[in-house]
Amino acid sequence: MAEDEEIPPPASFVEQATVTDDSVYGEFEENWPDCWGRAAATLDWFDPYESVLPADEPPFEWFAGGTLNACYNCLDRHVEAGAKNRVAIKWESHLGETRTYTYQDLYREVNEFAAALRAQGVEEDDVVTLYMPMIPELPIAMLACARIGAPHNVVFAGLSADALATRLESADSAFLVTCDGYYRRGSAIFLKSKADDARLKAAHDLEEMVVVEHLGETAHLGAGQHTYDELVDAHAGAEVDPVERTADDVLFLIHTSGTTGEPKRVEHVTGGYLAHVAWTSQAVLDLKPEDTYLCTANIGWISGHSYVVYGPLALGTTTVMYEGTPNYPEKDRIWDLIEENAVDVFYTAPTAIRSFMKWDTSLPASRDLSSLRLLGTVGEPINPRAWKWYYEHIGNENCPIVDTWWQTETGGMMITTLPGVKNMKPGTAGPPLPGVGARVVDGRGEEVPANEAGYLVLTRPWPGMPLALRHGQRWGEEAAKLDVGGWHYFTGDGAKVDEDGYVTVLGRVDDVINVSGHRLGTMEIESAIVDVEGVVEAAVVSVDDADTGGIHAYVTLETGVSGSDDLRERIGSHVRERIGPIATPDAVVFTPDLPKTRSGKIMRRFLENITNGEEFGDTSALQNPEIVGELESIVRDS
Ligand code: ATP
Ligand code: MG
């Protein structure tokens, strides 16, 4: 496969794909914004909306006048349509135990828990915080909240008691659902005690706590604390009418990953959000009700909300969830899950793909992955070498790959190829989806020429937009400075667009490296480095020296590859060739690991601190805080 090659989608895929006609782009253009009625049509509405988008300036009231219930759309309508015995959730525990919920099973348990929450005093619009690992009770609790119109606020279970306390306060949430604990890589983590800690730390009252007994060790229960089973048993057989929500009513709150700074709170609404994720699940992931689908995202992040829970369940698909990590008990866990469940569609992150490459390429080869029809990635740019590995070793050159660019703030996918329509270009996300307005502009807000770097802005509202943007608030400091003319949202990412309108994301604007007045995107340099044989991951940062400036690269290697000067030389020359001499790293540091957020993204600011001999701040947001000290001594001793 040559560099910059365009790869058409496999014919066998196109034959069966839901969206195969290129005219969909034109139709969205001609008929904007009413074209988004297609997304709304994937849902059942109680009252139909009066207008898709009444005005083209804030407030943006998507599907104004429409009412619906997200839980009804994910459960009741499938049960009513005769799919009650289809599997909704297939779950595999850390120890390999499986649980299967049909749509009928899920309907029953969600109703019982919804009744229980009500009995605990949860009313419509009360925020319920869910601090839970990847167990079935998490989506059950989310859907139960949605059923009674109580926005949920999921906090990733790996976050600390402090982080939970902050998020309880920020959401003004008096209700918490958690569990006694769970296993991670063989050791027990006691979540309930972290939750108790947060309750003491939060400067506000937590009234009720529900505890799922997942480890089976009866947790100590204080006042206002109940076990999940006790509540569900007390409401056995209960049915709760789904509350009629307006399209604009909040479905949930969530925080961004906090890769570049403090996590930001985002609120998503019922109508636009659900329509956006259901439509993109259908058009981009090509999900069909008869499919079995695996997304490796944790439900604690937006990707898990949109594409483990709401998108696939709204379409009546079977969604596979697993507890634990992809390399426990063995490094072929994911391939095992795909084979065992005959998974049709697989959606994961580039960081996971790079780990799979690092572990052992023969592992996927020893499994039958022929059930796969489509592959997807999200979270970071995927460099062409990893893309190619994914395409060949996992997809057997038979599955299109969708590289989906989106954010917590966008709710759902925004920039990616429609897999049955567009050619793929490895390393490039693709054109904006039909109906999405995206442009790359310079500091004055003017569109930059093709293939030149600039700021990625979204120039049209979209159904999955969050509440604050609907109301016309502007986000981000840079946003204020860009004058794009008309409404826009600045994404915080740098990007370039090619002649065919394909967008390549170059990095976060906060991470831009300035070398002698040239602004370089971190992701572009890193992508060039990881294309070098033997390299797994790379992070580059700028040297804070007014005279010299410069770039330092931190690099991890495949098992068995050693960090030699020869490899440093190869990295340098590859970057020179791909981007230019200006981007060549002045130093290459080999390291066993890179500092990462809990959602698996590289946190460059600690590397900057180390490079520049600065104090580094609080490392508690990292999944591997120990690496910071280790790296500091590697750099000091080198
Ligand atoms: P914070 O906003 O708190 O710093 P975050 O941006 O990491 O955290 P998310 O909303 O989870 O939080 O991540 C969205 C970001 O992830 C995007 O803005 C982009 O930088 C990156 N991203 C996601 N998907 C892709 C992709 N397919 N290609 C390139 N970058 C991507
Ligand atoms: Mg962000």
UniProtKB/TrEMBL annotation:
The keyword Nucleus does not apply. Residues 524-601 form the AMP-binding enzyme C-terminal domain. It holds the Pfam family AMP-binding_C. Residues 23-74 form the Acetyl-coenzyme A synthetase N-terminal domain. GO terms for molecular function: acetate-CoA ligase activity; AMP binding; ATP binding. Keywords: ATP-binding, Ligase, Nucleotide-binding. GO terms for biological process: acetyl-CoA biosynthetic process from acetate. It comes from the Archaea. Residues 81-461 form the AMP-dependent synthetase/ligase domain. It is an enzyme of class 6 (ligase). Its EC number is 6.2.1.1. PROSITE patterns: AMP_BINDING. This is Acetate--CoA ligase. It comes from Haloferax gibbonsii (strain ATCC 33959 / DSM 4427 / JCM 8863 / NBRC 102184 / NCIMB 2188 / Ma 2.38).
